[in-house]
Amino acid sequence: MISISDADSFFSSVEQHVKTLESSQRPNPLSIELLVGSTKRFLAKPEFRIQLDDLLSDETARLLSHLEGPEFEIPFDWDQAAFRIRVTRLESVSEGLATIAGIAGRWGEGREWSAVINTIRSVHAHGQKSRSGVSKFPNLRSYPAVLTFTSYALGLVRAGRWEMLHRLMSAELQNDYRRPTRLIETLFLWTWVGTENDAWKQLPDFEERKTPLSDHLLELTRSWSKTFVGAVPDFELLFERFEVLGSLVYLEGSSKNSLQETLAPEGQDNWAFMPVGRSGWNSRNASKLILELQSDNFRLPLLAAGFARMTRNSLICLLRIFSGQPVECAGNPPFSLGNTEATNLARINSATQNWYQESVEGSTGFDSLRSPLPGKLLSTYRNHGFWNPPHSSSSASERSV
């Protein structure tokens, strides 16, 4: 028996709850649970690769079918309430696909790559269609691609799969009327068209937010990622680690000369365009992440994975641009690999990933890893030019980053 004050207030409350449920259209938790179980089972054995591909294809088709429904027709007049509902509905219909991608990032071994990147490309291509209407609404059409990319990337970060993360961020996407662009230049932070005109400040209580999209994605993925990130001491730090690495990959698109100009002595007005998320203002995590990037435990695996064009000096330059500190960076020659060296580095990355997964559990950052990078791996990195002994690599200028 339910106690109520009066019939009018009771039915009014029921009506509000029904409207909330209708507007959010959150998928049945049992269907998400089924997707989670199926994805993990298909990832567990190589012989299930076809079933995994089918699962992604079916969920992508389901999403695109929803996006063609009448509830996603693009209005020609601006309505803040309609915008907020549109965001919630897009998240609801995208949750299943984003969850599959996150699980594939966390527990995949590379076999999932083709299916996941083709899924992101398909969803993004669908979002390129029909751009009539108030700009904030059609620009949201590619939001499901942003969510799928972000979830997959967070899974990769959680697993320490740095080579695959770099490959994801550097993958090309086709764009209408323009040359192909890297994914990091299309679906990341304010490179994404959906952030134009301060669109994400239209969310409740977001008017004064410095990074409204980042803030929203942080809270959304914090909820979704429980199925693939699991229990971590600081999810916010993990999320901002993803953002910082994305910023560094974005800078890889700059020419060496333009980076040198940006790093010119103080007093010159030189700037490098780089999308920066929450760590641009969240000094608590920014300082932790900068220390991580100075640590051999983190820096060396990133270099071997292709970050900063595989040169230690380039990573220092990119890091100092990110941190806003002036620096003179002498140019090391670009690092290139022959077939044998590439094979050896693949083995190095695999060994590093195993070390990372064993060491990072329960730690709050790379400064508190349970074990240092094994000496054998350090020696291998040194032999490939990624690391020099402390007396030569830890110069005063490098330590002052």
Rg, alpha carbons: 23 Å
Share of β-strand residues: under 5%
| N-to-C series of helices and strands | HHHHHHHEEHHHHHHHHHH
Mean pLDDT: 75
From the spread of the alpha carbons, the general shape counts as: globular
Please give the order of strands in the largest beta sheet: 1-2
Structural class by SSE content: mainly alpha
Count of DSSP-assigned helices: 17
> What's the number of structural domains?
2
Largest sheet: 2 strands, antiparallel
* DSSP strand count: 2
Give the terminus-to-terminus CA distance. Answer: 66 Å
Low-confidence stretches: 16-24, 326-348, 359-373, 375-401
The proportion of residues forming helix, as a percent range, comes to 55-70%
Key features of this structure:
2 strands, 2% strand, two-stranded antiparallel sheet, mainly alpha, globular
